[in-house]
Recover the amino acids of this structure.
């Protein structure tokens, strides 16, 4: 991972509560997460799609690693979240 990514600031990670559309359970998700598993029904809950460095940064794959990059791109292309 690159040490000086201009968009990466671990000091500003926060959380929010989102509701599972399948069972209504309230789940906590952090700003550095794209999806979380619902504790109520075990389905994945995806964060609302927001602009992400994956959409515009040429160093994103190198920065977060090839495997994580591919996983996130699959989620983004399915329209189920962003990071």
């Amino acid at each position: 991972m690159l040490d000086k990514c201009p968009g990466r600031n671990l000091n500003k990670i926060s959380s929010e509560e989102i509701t599972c559309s399948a069972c209504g359970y309230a789940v906590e998700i952090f700003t550095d997460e794209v999806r979380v598993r619902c504790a109520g029904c075990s389905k994945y809950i995806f964060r609302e799609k927001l602009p992400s460095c994956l959409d515009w940064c040429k160093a994103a794959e190198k920065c977060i690693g090839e495997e994580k990059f591919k996983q996130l791109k699959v989620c983004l292309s399915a329209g189920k979240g962003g990071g």
Notes: The longest strand covers residues 15-19. The chain has a mean pLDDT of 77. Residues 10-77 form one domain.
